[in-house]
Design brief:
Elements (H helix, E strand, L loop, with lengths): L1 E2 L2 E2 L4 H22 L8 H8 L5 H36 L11 H15 L4 H22 L7 H25 L2 H12 L7 H20 L1 H7 L3 H6 L4 H23 L5 H13 L6 H21 L9 H21 L4
Antiparallel strand pairs: 1-2
Helix pairs in contact: 1-3, 1-13, 2-3, 3-8, 3-11, 3-12, 3-13, 4-5, 4-6, 4-7, 4-11, 5-6, 5-11, 8-11, 12-13, 13-14
Length: 338
């Protein structure tokens, strides 16, 4: 694609996959908005979204259900893109933010606010962002040794994750019954009761951090060829890693603050997107769209696939992630790599 003095290389298959994922995400979102105790047909949902529905349905669609779906789309996209960025930086398919401890760091920040400070929902969100950011910086600094090696960063992150999980368990044991119940719901990852006040901070975070990560896409592709090759081609490898890690940590922390630590989306979305696009390198935008599709589909399953009652959206994502890991192990074994 060329426009004026600018040129952008777009792979046709990646573009088609991206458009398909966007259509699927929007279609599932319309179905999800119509799902609930008061069922609304997809046609009536679309009428309400364009301002041509009846007042009762407009209230349900715009005020009660639309904020939840938008949060699901943005959280899924944030986790998918940050997972793709981390897996590229670490050159490891297991190098996603939830595996290397950033989700657990956000959980520690949130639990400190819930259990020790008795904070409000807004303060819990700030605690989650602060916990994720502090954890990300600590892992990055501990992994630094004349540069950051991806293998070392993953190992330190897994160790930090184990420590933070223990801290979370300790805080839950020390909490009283009410705080422990509130903390358990938050840790499970839930989209229930999301409102417009929780949408706008996430919109701002995505509007700033996603374009920043996309500008690093070319440098990330080159760093996959090795640091020496990247430096020879003019890429400042450590600066690129620092920018990508900071942006990804903030994106993960913002998503966790909005919906709790939702597992496996950051791990599976980049790998599924890469297989669909058949791209040899990082696929930031398709990964974000795949993450959005997975989370809105998981939220629909959380409301409809577990009997009469709803479950936190983190439950179906955990089922999805466990199945994905089993499939990955079987396919790698058949390929003779494990």
């Amino acid at each position: 694609m060329r426009a004026g003095g600018w040129a952008l290389a777009v792979e046709r298959r990646a573009l088609l996959v991206g458009v398909l994922l966007l259509v699927v995400a929007l279609a599932v979102s319309v179905v999800l908005i119509g799902t609930g105790d008061y069922h609304i047909a997809p046609v009536d949902v679309l009428r309400s979204l364009v301002g041509r529905g009846d007042p009762g349905q407009d209230f349900i669609v715009r005020q009660l259900r639309l904020p939840r779906v938008i949060v699901a789309l943005l959280v899924g996209a944030s986790l998918g893109m940050s997972g793709a960025a981390f897996q590229t930086v670490t050159r490891n398919p297991l190098g996603s933010p939830d595996v290397v401890g950033f989700g657990q760091g956000s959980a520690v920040g949130a639990l400190i606010v819930i259990v020790l400070l008795k904070g409000s929902s807004y303060e819990v969100a700030l605690g989650a962002v602060a916990g994720g950011l502090i954890t990300g910086l600590a892992v990055y600094l501990l992994a630094w040794k004349r540069g950051v090696n991806g293998y070392r960063l993953v190992l330190i992150g897994i160790g930090g994750s184990a420590v933070l999980t223990a801290v979370n368990s300790y805080l839950l044991v020390k909490a009283d019954f009410v705080d422990a119940a509130r903390a358990e719901v938050w840790i499970a990852g839930s989209l229930d009761g999301r409102e417009w006040s929780q949408v706008w901070p996430l919109v701002v975070a995505c509007a700033v951090l996603m374009p920043l990560l996309l500008t690093q896409g070319r440098a990330l592709r080159i760093t996959e060829m090795g640091d020496d090759t990247a430096r020879a081609l003019g890429v400042r490898t450590e600066r690129t890693r620092l920018v990508v890690v900071l942006a990804s940590v903030l994106l993960t922390a913002s998503a966790t603050a909005a919906a709790g630590p939702i597992a496996f989306i950051a791990l599976t979305a980049p790998q599924l997107a890469r297989r669909l696009t058949r791209s040899p390198g990082v696929s930031l935008l398709p990964s974000a769209l795949m993450g959005a599709v997975l989370l809105v589909a998981a939220d629909w399953a959380a409301q409809r696939a577990f009997g009469s009652g709803q479950v936190p959206v983190g439950v179906p994502t955990a089922v999805l992630g466990g199945g994905y890991l089993l499939w990955l192990l079987v396919s790698e074994r058949r390929a003779g790599r494990v």
